[in-house]
Amino acid sequence: MGRLLSLLALADLALIVVALIDCLSAEHYEIRTLPRIAWIFIIVLISPIGPMVWYMAGRPDRMLDPELELERGLRQDGEPVEPSGPGRVLAPDDDPEFLRQLAARNRDREEERLRAWEADLRRRERELRRERERGRDGEAGREGKLGRECERPAEEPPADPKI
C-alpha cells in the first residue's frame, strides 16, 4: 500500500509541475476564465484536482487558434504551415539570398587569408635565401682569410721553436 501511495504522490507532483510550467509559459491573453495568478494558486493548493481543472478550463485552446498554429508552425493534422505573401519572414538559414551573401563573404575572407599566407610565405622564402647567400659569402670570406693567415711568405724562414 505504501508503494502505491508514493507512486500516486509522485504522479501528483509531476502533474503539478507540468501544469505550472504550462500555465507560466502561456501568454496572459491566451489564458481562459481566470487570471494567471489565480490559476497558479488553484494548481498548487487544490492538488490533484487543480492541475486537471487547469487543463480543462484554463489552458489555451491552441489547436483552434489559426494565429497560434502559424506561430507554432503546425496545423491540426501536423502538417507544417507556410506563411504566404510578401511579408513572409524567413529564418536566416532558409533565406537563399542570405546564404548567398554568407557564402560570398566567407569565400572572400578565405581568399584574402590565402593571399596573406602566400605573401608571408614568399617573404619568408626571400629572407631565407638572403640568409643562405650571406652564409655562403661569409664562409668563402672566412676561408679566404684563414687561408691567407695560414700561408707564410716564402722569404721568411720557419720560426725556430728553441729560440
TrEMBL record:
**Predominant place of localization:** membrane
Q: Where in the cell is it found?
A: Cell membrane
| Residue ranges of every copy of the Cardiolipin synthase N-terminal domain listed in the record | 14-59
Which one Pfam family would you cite for this protein? PLDc_N
Which residue ranges does the record annotate as region Disordered? 74-96, 127-163
Transmembrane segment boundaries: 38-57
Q: How does it sit in the membrane?
A: Multi-pass membrane protein
Keywords assigned by UniProt, alphabetized = Cell membrane, Membrane, Transmembrane, Transmembrane helix
Query: What protein is this chain from?
Result: Cardiolipin synthase N-terminal domain-containing protein
Source organism of the structure: Rugosimonospora acidiphila
Its organism's taxonomic lineage begins at:
Bacteria, Bacillati, Actinomycetota, Actinomycetes, Micromonosporales
